[in-house]
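In this section we walk through a basic example: taking a raw amino acid sequence and producing a predicted 3D structure, encoded as discrete structure tokens. The instruction is simple. Fold the sequence below.
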Amino acid sequence: MIPILAAILLSGQAIETAPADCSKAMTTPEINACAGLDLERETARMERYLAAARTRARELDAVDDVRDRSHQQVYLQNAQKAWEAYAAIVCDGVYDEWKGGTIRNAMYIGCQVEMTRERTRVIWRDYLTYADSTPPILPEPVDPATDAP
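The resulting token sequence is shown next.
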């Protein structure tokens, strides 16, 4: 139900209504479009981190230890599916809470942005860092995502 709303908001029509400077967004369509841009960037970053995590999971699973074989790819895939379901429930609840006002879409997308940031951080922590002083595979995702990869 709600994912359809997100698809509409993230369509070219919605993005075209975003002002050049989102800090100056004033109208509901502009605010929603800017929130949609934020979600696009956060989702793209999460997908980059997830791709790196999948590579790491494959490497961990490839270690030849018959006694204690790793199943990181399965765990990562299952965790991602579970997170997607969880995030949908949380953000659907936010949408329902605000359904009586024009702010509902911005609140819903804002929830998706925050959930995606949190998931990216968890992917980074669990798959892209090391217990020793080895540098992480990708930088810690502490700031909002930008257009740069």
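Looking at the output, two observations stand out. Residues 2-127 form a domain with the Substrate Binding Domain Of Dnak; Chain:A; Domain 2 fold (CATH 1.20.1270). The chain has a mean pLDDT of 89. In the next section we compare this with other chains.
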